[in-house]
Structure formats: C-alpha cells, structure tokens
Write a structure and sequence with these properties.
Layout (H helix, E strand, L loop, with lengths): L13 E5 L5 H12 L5 E5 L7 H5 L3 E2 L11 E4 L4 H8 L5 H4 L4 E5 L5 H14 L4 E5 L2 E2 L1 H7 L2 E6 L2 H12 L2 E7 L3 H29 L4 H9 L6 H12 L10 H16 L4 H18 L7 H8 L8
Parallel strand pairs: 1-2, 1-4, 2-3, 4-5, 5-6, 8-9
Antiparallel strand pairs: 7-8
Helix pairs in contact: 1-6, 8-10, 8-11, 8-13, 9-10, 11-12
Length: 312
C-alpha cells in the first residue's frame, strides 16, 4: 500500500455523484472542470433537481433515480452518514439495483469505521463482487471544496483506491492511509483537533471581548504566532462579526466526536479532552446552536455565564 499514487491522465469514463450540499456541489463542479474535453461523463442525483440546476448547466447529466448511477465506474457519495447512504443504495431504484459492471463507491462522510467495513461486505455480497467501498472523508471546509484544496483521508484496498484516485485528485490532495476504515479514523483525529481549536477560539473571543480588547486585532496578531491555524484563519472573521450562518454545522461534531470516542474505547486510548469536547458540543446542540456554523462556540460560551465586569 502506497500513500501516494502516480499521475493520472484521465478520469474514469463515468463518474457518479450524490450529495450536492455545501461541500458536494463545489466538489462536483471541480470534477466537471477536471473532465474538461475528455470523454468522462459526470452523472448526478439529488433529492431536488432544482438544487442540481447549476451543475447540470455546467455539463453534468441528470440521473432520475440513484439506480441510474449504477453504470458509473466511480460513485462519490457526499452524504451526512451511512443511514443516508443506505437510502440511496437499497430498493428497486437504488444504486445497487443498477450495478452490472465493476464499480467503486466512495464514502465521503465522517462515519463509523466498522460501519464502512460492514457496508463493503454487504455491497460486495449484493453485487456478486462487482462493487466495493473505499472511505474518503475530507477536511478543509466549504472554501477548500470550492478551491479544490481539500485534504482527503483515504482507506481501502489498493485496487479500488487506484480506480478512484484520479477522481479524488480533482477535490484536493488524497492520501492513502491504510485499509478500509483508515480514512474515517484519520478524520476522527482531525475532528478532535478542529473541535478543540474552535472551542478554544470561542472561549478566547469571549474573554477578550469582555476585557475590552479589539478582537479582530488580537486574532490577526495571534494568527502569526503559535496559536495560528487553518481554523483561526477561516473562522476568525465569522467569530468577530458573530456571523454563524452555517458552512459546517456545529451539530455534526456530536456525531464525529461520538465515533472518535468509540474508536478511543476500542483501542484503549485515554482521551480526556475528547470526552470534554463531546460533552460541550452535545450541550451546545441541546441549547439550540447546533444548526449554526462551528464558529458559534463564541455565542455558546458567552451564554454560559453573564459578564461580571468589563474593562472599557
């Protein structure tokens, strides 16, 4: 198994895509751009054709049902989790019913590592071995999806990973980390770091604001020091402006950190910060902040206690 692959000159003949949300839509657009004048066909399916209109105008083909994607060589599923994947796989109009040639299913969600392995076994059994699964969750946010600079954490056997590699390269930088499930575990590690950073930024923002410090100036300064991070760079203005319009909804952290906790328990890893983060994001969601962007940690922290004093 190699973490990197050699250059590819062409995408697979047919690539399918389901999940045209904040991340999926720009990823599909980049796939179309990469296909360019090649014979690659990009076929998309979404719950609402209206939501897919921009992609269709750019040259994608519409699949009336997920089953129509069964003819694809690679199918990218950018859905919230495995239950949503099951919805498009199963039934007479599902993807599995349409598969009659070798196909690789790319799971882009942050999901259970064991669940992905179980899914692969089910898919192989249902298709007589024609289809298999790789996991490829991504990091980099909506801006990374638009720019095509996502970090893509890949798990799976060499053969299906090789088949999907040129497709993954259109989204950013893929790295093959190990067998099936490895991508998910890497994403858990990513989310622990992201969650701890954005929660710390929320606490720092409230402390600085209540102390009368210019929050924007402080964040600009901190970005040049050890506190600098991609999370700070992409979220600092949102935190300063208290703009919590969703790009990466905070409630998804509960799911992601729960999976991380399960893996920590399975490996016998003591992870006190992980448990604390899960508790805080669970409470944040229960308090009604979950549908907003992860930068809402500032509002959540501010809501916990009223300010006692303020330096002006």
């Amino acid at each position: 198994m190699s973490s990197q692959r050699g250059p590819h000159t062409a995408l697979p003949p047919i690539v399918g895509f389901i999940g045209l949300g904040a991340m999926g839509a720009p990823m599909a657009r980049n796939l179309l751009t990469a296909a360019g004048g090649s014979p690659t066909r990009v076929i998309v399916n979404h719950r609402s054709r209206d939501r897919a209109s921009a992609i269709l105008d750019a040259g994608a083909e519409w699949a009336g049902t997920p089953r129509a994607l069964g003819a694809a060589d690679v199918i990218v599923l950018m859905l919230p989790d495995l239950p949503q994947v099951d919805e498009v796989l199963d039934g007479p109009d599902g993807i599995l019913a349409g598969i009659d040639s070798p196909t690789v299913l790319v799971i882009g969600s942050t999901s259970s590592a064991q669940g992905v392995r179980d899914l692969d076994e089910r898919v192989r059994a249902a298709t007589g071995g024609l289809a298999g699964v790789i996991d490829a969750p991504v990091s980099g946010g909506e801006d990374g999806a638009i720019a095509g600079t996502l970090s893509i954490m890949v798990g799976g056997a060499d053969e299906p990973v090789d088949t999907a590699w040129s497709t993954l390269e259109t989204f950013g930088t893929p790295v093959h980390l190990g067998p099936l499930g490895s991508g998910e575990i890497a994403k858990y590690c990513n989310q622990i770091i992201v969650a701890s950073t954005i929660m710390a930024l929320g606490e720092a923002a409230v402390l600085a604001d209540r102390s009368g410090i210019d929050l924007g100036a402080m964040f600009d300064l901190l970005e040049g020091g050890y506190a600098g991070s991609r999370v700070l760079a992409t979220r600092k203005q949102r935190i300063v402006d208290e703009d919590y319009s969703p790009s990466g909804p905070a409630k998804f952290m509960v799911k992601d950190l729960t999976y991380a906790t399960i893996e920590a328990e399975r490996t016998g890893t003591t992870a006190p910060q992980l448990h604390s983060l899960l508790d805080q994001f669970t409470r944040l969601t229960e308090e009604g902040y979950g549908d907003q962007d992860i930068s809402v940690t500032r509002a959540y922290i501010d809501s916990l206690t009223p300010p006692r004093t303020r330096i002006d």
